[in-house]
Request: fold
Amino acid sequence: MKKLRILLCLALAALCLGALAGCNSDQKGDTARPAVVVGFSQLGSESGWRIGNTASMEQAAKDWGFGLMLDNANQRQEKQIAAIRSFISYQVDVIVFSPIVETGWENVLNEAKKAGIPVILMDRMIDAKDDSLYTAYIGADFLAEGRRAGEYLIKKADDMRAKHLNIVEITGTVDSTPMRERQLGFREAIGGDERFTLLESISGDFLRSKGEECMRYLLHRYGTEGIDVIYSHNDEMTLGALDVLESVGMKPGQDVVIISVDGQQTAVDALLEGRINCIAECTPHLGDAVMALVDALSRGEEIPKQIHPEETVFSEFDDLSGLEPRGY
Ligand code: GZL
Reply:
C-alpha cells in the first residue's frame, strides 16, 4: 500500500511538472522548473465569459513562456483558498486569482504575504482593509459598465417617448464585485428619472439555468404586460431569459427591452437579430496584460495598483456592421 502511495505522489509531481514543461526554464531539460511560474486560481466555468478568460490566461502564459499552474474552483471559495495554499507550498513566483466573492480572503492572503509571493487580483476585487494583501487589481470598471447600461435605457426611453417603464433586474453572484457595482452604476445613472420603477432585483448567479428560473418567476409574479425592461448582469443569464420569454410568445427586444453585460458572440448575434437591445461590454481577454504584470514583477519592477481595460457599449443605436468577432 505504501509503495502505491509513493508511486501516486511521484505520478502527481510528474503531472504538475509536465504541465510546466515546454516553458522558458532557467536550466536545460524538459522537467526543469520554468524561470517564472504563475499559480492561477480560476473561480469556475460558469459562463462563456469565464471560459474565454481562462483561455486568455492559458494562451498568454504560453506566449510569454511562463509556467502556469491552473486550478478551477468550480464556484467554491474554499477550493480557491486551498489552491492558493498549494501555490504557496510550491513557492510559485506570482499568484493570480479571480475572487468569487469579495470577503473571506485575509487569512490566506496573509500567508502569501508572509511567503513573499505577490498576488494579482484579476477580474474581481476583494473587500480587505489592508490593501497590501494584493499587489495589483486588473479588471473591469464595473460601476462604469452599470452606468453605461443605465445611460442606454435613458436614451431608449427618450426614443420610445415612454411615460413610465417597469424594470426587473437579474443580478450576478451576490457579494461579487461585478454584481455589486453593475447594480450600483445602473442605479446611479437612472436614479433621478421619474419614468423608471425598479420592481425587483433577484440573483441568477451568472448562470444561464438560473437566468431562466429568474425569468419564469418574474413573469409569474408580474405577467407579460407588467415588465417593460430586463437588466441582466451577464449574457448567459440574458440568453436563458430570452428562451423563457420566447417560450410564452413574447418578442424580446420589441415587447420588452433587454439590457445585458459581457458581449460574448452568441449575445452579440442576438443583438444583431434585434432580440437584445444593448450590451455593456466586459472583456475576458485579460491574459496578456496579466502576464505583462507578472513579467514586470519578475524583473523587480513596480506595477500599477489598479488597471482597467478599455470597454464600450453596443446597442441598437450603433452601426455594428464592422464589429470584430468577439473571440469567445
Ligand atoms: C466580470 C466577470 C463576470 C462576467 C460573467 O468581470 O466576473 O463573471 O460578467 C462571469 O459572465 O461569470
Notes: DSSP finds ten helices and twelve strands in the chain. The first strand starts at residue 37 and ends at 42.
